Amino acid sequence: MSLQLARAEKADIPQLVDLYFNTFKSPLVLRVKPDVPPVREWYKKSLESDIEKPYTRIYKVVEGQAGSVQASVEIIAFAKWSSPHTEPPQEKFTEWPVDGDVALFEEVTGKATEKKEKIMGQEEYWYMGVLATLPKHQRRGAASLLMTEFCKQADQARHRSYVEASPLGRPTYQRFGFETQDTFSVVIDGEPYIDCCMVREPQKPS
Which SUPFAM superfamilies match (predicted)? Predict the structure, then answer.
């Protein structure tokens, strides 16, 4: 069956939560977002909030007949990104679950925010927040479908794009024109964990 790309719907969120926790197994994610019910519930609520925001785009990839994404019962990949926007002053992110390593989360968030502000400044940009493919479906082109759509939207808007990539995810972003501008690291169980701050320039349609 062919792979089909479509906007995710609210009814897809339980599957997206499962996909997220079945995909991301890095030392950082396992410490910050352990796969336990309270953290899964936190992530479900965050997706429910995000999917209602006009500047957030959540796309899914499913297997199905051409032109009929409903033919599939399994979402094999998804991505979440945002277009340039200004957060409402009153908006506050859902409180972080205590089941995760809150101190590590705050350290990573602080370093990531500092690097992003240093690199991007006050300019408008597109931000890739999540790109996930189920391990058993990797190397089939699902991530490429999602990245192609993301790049198309960013290029049409003529904005640069930004992502914080793990060492494992970095090659995928490089294939789509992202370049590493800086890195930041944290120590987990005595070992350094490095994230790459990557930027993509908008490209003219061919």
Answer: Acyl-CoA N-acyltransferases (Nat) (SSF55729)
